[in-house]
Write a structure and sequence with these properties.
By secondary structure, the chain is an all-alpha fold. The protein has helices spanning 3-18, 23-62, 64-73, 75-85, 92-120. It has two domains: 3-88; 90-121. Helix content is 88%, strand content 0%. The chain starts with a helix and ends with a helix. 0% of the residues are buried.
Length: 121
């Protein structure tokens, strides 16, 4: 028997000795109180169990040691991947070409809008 159960037994005996007149009603009151405490202790145990399960689940995603080991073992592969997947900027000639195409396209759109506006008037 745990300490809490032992305390409840002592409290029950003490309770009966003090209130000898209306023992049945006091015992009923005490049993209701005891039942609520039992329910609360069960609920507390369930919540503690759920908490430990969630902590274990969280360790999978926040474990720094495993990721550190992975990066130490695969350092060269990761560097190679970074080189191949790195998006590079186009050369200055290409960027000038793209800018020119964009400018000409916008110029055409403005001309079409002016022609439509002149036809609608």
């Amino acid at each position: 028997m745990d300490i809490f159960g032992h305390f409840l037994n002592i409290f029950e005996h003490f309770f009966i000795k003090i209130f000898k007149k209306n023992i049945p009603s006091y015992i009923a009151l005490f049993n209701c109180y005891k039942m609520n405490i039992d329910e609360l202790t069960e609920k507390c145990k369930l919540l503690e169990q759920e908490n430990t399960e969630l902590k274990e689940h969280l360790k999978r995603y926040t474990a720094p040691a495993s990721s550190k080991n992975y990066y130490e073992k695969h350092k060269e592969q990761i560097k190679e991947r970074r080189k191949t997947h790195n998006v590079t900027k186009p050369s200055p000639e290409k960027s000038k070409e793209y800018a020119r195409k964009y400018y000409l396209k916008k110029k055409e759109e403005k001309q079409k809008e002016k022609e439509l506006a002149a036809q609608n008037i």
